[in-house]
Amino acid sequence: MKAQSKAQQRAAGAALSAKRGETKVGDLQGASKDMYHSMSEDELAEMAATDHDDLPDCADDD
User: Fold this and answer.
1) Which site in 4, 10, 12, 13 is 20 to 30 Å from 21, CA atoms measured?
2) Res. 57 pLDDT band, cuts 50 70 90
3) Contact, 7 vs 58, CB < 8 A?
4) pLDDT tens, 33-55?
5) If pLDDT is split at 50, 70 and 90, which confidence band does 1 have?
6) What are 13-20's contacts with CB under 8 Å, separation 24+?
7) What pLDDT sits at residue 62?
């Protein structure tokens, strides 16, 4: 699944970092915390890797 906005991509990156043990889970907030609990590392990696050049800052669904 590809990110729909830059905000979603950043949240996925933060959640992925926590999944990999690079940051503390307790530091996550909002969408990144939800993503951490509901998505696999592979799903987060795919979303975080989305090219963000053509993405809006925020999607309507964010």
Assistant:
1) 4
2) confident
3) yes
4) 999 999 999 999 999 998 888 88
5) confident
6) 13/44, 13/48, 15/39, 15/44, 16/41, 16/44, 16/45, 16/48, 19/44
7) 44
d(CA 19, CA 1) in angstroms, rounded, equals: 17
Polymer length of the chain = 62
Token pair of 51, please? 């090219």
Distance of alpha carbon 45 from the chain centroid: 8
d(C-alpha 37, C-alpha 56), whole Å? 25
